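Design request, tokens follow.
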């Protein structure tokens, strides 16, 4: 998990979110079941595309690239079941893989919330140790995020090991290279591979810091 910058609010939400919210809350106030078409108004292509752009098509929690391999879920940071007034709120929406989305479900504790990568730096709560991600000592919100989302589930660890291996191979080439020009080219490749648009960049950057290769900030 890494820090994400919230993008510009989609025009569709700018023009309609308040009206959708008021209509939804009207049904709820009358103890009536809102139509599914209204409840799902947030799940539209232009909104999902804006979420892809700001998250680099990665899950906001586990950093898996999900654009081409599985249907993304629009994540409500504060669950819409508990906070229906935030169903269409742009700042409450993110992109998540199906597994993280289902693991989190409607679990929410206002006193000890999941890490919100839009509003805080996840590395203050979580740390990468090889292919594993752990809560930092004394960070209960990090522990909740790690354990409930299962950030060390087997398939994630396997993919992170592959990323670590690829980056280590580049580092080995860099350190064994005699040509200054080729060293510069390989260093640039390393920089690209640990960029925030790449999968598991928290793990990748932690590895580079341990190895001690100097890359541009």
């Amino acid at each position: 998990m890494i820090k994400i910058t919230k993008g510009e609010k989609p025009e569709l939400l700018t023009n309609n979110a308040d009206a959708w919210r008021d209509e939804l809350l009207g049904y709820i106030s009358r103890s009536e079941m809102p139509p599914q078409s209204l409840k799902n108004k947030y799940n539209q292509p232009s909104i999902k595309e804006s979420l892809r752009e700001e998250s680099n098509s990665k899950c906001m929690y586990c950093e898996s690239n999900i654009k081409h391999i599985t249907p993304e879920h629009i994540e409500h940071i504060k669950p819409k079941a508990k906070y229906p007034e935030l169903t269409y709120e742009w700042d409450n929406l993110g992109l998540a893989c199906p597994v993280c989305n289902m693991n989190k479900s409607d679990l929410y504790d206002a006193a000890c919330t999941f890490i919100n990568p839009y509003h805080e730096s996840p590395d203050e709560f979580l740390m990468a140790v090889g292919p594993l991600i752990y809560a930092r000592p004394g960070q209960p919100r990090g522990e909740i995020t790690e354990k409930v989302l299962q950030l060390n589930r087997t398939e994630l660890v396997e993919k992170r090991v592959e990323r670590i291996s690829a980056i280590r191979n580049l580092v080995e080439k860099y350190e064994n290279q005699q040509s200054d020009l080729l060293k510069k080219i390989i260093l640039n490749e390393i920089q690209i591979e640990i960029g925030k648009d790449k999968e598991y960049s928290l793990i990748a950057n932690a590895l580079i810091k341990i190895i001690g290769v100097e890359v541009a900030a």
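Comment from the thread starter after seeing the answer: thanks! The chain has eight helices and four strands.
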